[in-house]
Specification:
There is one protein chain. Strands 1-2-3-4-5-7-6 form a seven-stranded mixed sheet. It contains four helices and seven strands; from the N terminus they run E-H-H-E-E-E-H-E-H-E-E. With 148 residues, it is an alpha+beta fold. Strand 3 and strand 4 form a beta hairpin. Helix 1 (12-24) packs across helix 2.
């Protein structure tokens, strides 16, 4: 069984480890070094996100294999990040997670997210899911998707 549910503070340690492994695996798809977004390897950050109800966990048969940080503001949903443990990449869990996020927030009229320019995997992934680039700078590509 696969499900995306809110994470609690007790999940922060496991989610933090998955986040660290996932983002550091981006070195294989163009990352300049083993790095990630702010707080990607901070238990304190993930605990705070859980406390503020922004942290979600992806469960497969009861085991956490990924996570998401989501922010809703009126009819706009911002996906701060999604990540899946590297050993579960390319198994459809990312597509499931994105579809589930859209389903979980029916009031959202627009979903926004961003990803590094160098990350070929995530840029093609978001485009495949119907996200449209609306802005780009030297480091980041910004995407949006209008929900009907």
């Amino acid at each position: 069984m696969v499900e995306l549910v809110k994470a609690g503070t007790s999940d922060a340690l496991v989610i933090n480890g998955i986040s660290k492994r996932s983002f550091e695996s981006d070195i294989e798809v163009g990352a300049p070094n083993k790095c990630g977004p702010s707080g990607y390897m901070s238990i304190k950050f993930h605990t705070k996100m859980a406390r503020l109800n922004h942290l979600y966990k992806l469960l497969v048969d009861g085991f956490i294999i990924g996570g998401a940080i989501l922010f809703i503001d009126g009819d706009r949903l911002t996906i701060g990040r999604i990540f899946i443990s590297p050993e579960h990449h390319r198994k459809g869990y990312g597509v499931y997670m994105m579809q589930e996020i859209e389903r979980m927030f029916p009031a959202a009229k627009e979903i926004c997210l961003d990803t590094p320019v160098w990350n070929i995997r995530t840029n093609s992934f978001y485009q495949k899911l119907g996200y449209t680039e609306y802005k780009r700078d030297r480091e980041i590509v910004y995407y949006t998707k209008r929900i009907k």
